[in-house]
Design a protein that fits this description.
- This protein is mainly alpha-helical.
- It is built from four helices and no strands.
- The protein is rod-shaped and about 120 Å long.
- It starts with 37 loop residues before the first helix and ends with a helix.
- It is found in: Cell membrane.
Length: 178
């Protein structure tokens, strides 16, 4: 009796994903100015320094509290300074432990915070600028007021806003690319 015996044919395992066919997902390059980069830290520190300078110069004038726009500038620069220094500490931490800060939730928080503080700082600087022009040019009472201090504080607030804009735009762009 001739019984056929089953033949064992080896089965090849399917190949694992080939890097040529399915390249691994590549993250966006570290663009300077984004959270967790040295450029981002430099932007945060410059935001803080100029907001602190605006605050210091404005508070040094004794009669700033008599004008609402100047009080608004003080409040906006305090908020800008606190936001910027807290994110600067976060950037320092991320740089020390080599951590990426591009988590979608974190990016959303950074974008919202930068947008809010940028808007408040810009509005306060514009309002203070208008009052400074009113006092200096229209009313001609600079001799009775601290016009130079008001102008310097307003300028520092505008420079702080200029430093916030790249941070906001980078975060917003990175958030929109997801």
């Amino acid at each position: 009796m001739s019984v056929s015996r089953p033949a064992v044919h080896p089965v090849e395992a399917p190949p694992l994903t080939d890097a040529a066919e399915n390249p691994p997902r590549v993250r966006m390059k570290e663009i300077q100015g984004m959270p967790g980069t040295p450029g981002g830290l430099a932007l945060r520190l410059s935001q803080f320094v100029f907001a602190a300078a605006a605050l210091g110069v404005m508070v040094s004038a004794s009669d700033f509290a008599s004008v609402t726009a100047f009080c608004y500038l003080v409040a906006a620069t305090i908020l800008q300074g606190l936001w910027s220094i807290s994110l600067a500490f976060l950037d320092i931490y991320a740089l020390l432990v080599k951590r990426c800060l591009r988590n979608p939730r974190a990016l959303c928080l950074f974008t919202l915070g930068d947008g809010i503080t940028a808007t408040l700082t810009f509005a306060a600087a514009c309002a203070s600028s208008g009052i400074t022009v009113l006092i200096g040019n229209d009313l001609n009472i600079c001799s009775q007021n601290h016009c130079t201090s008001f102008e310097t504080a307003t300028t520092m607030a505008f420079i702080s806003w200029f430093a916030v804009c790249p941070s906001f735009l980078m975060n917003f762009w990175s958030l929109a690319c997801r």
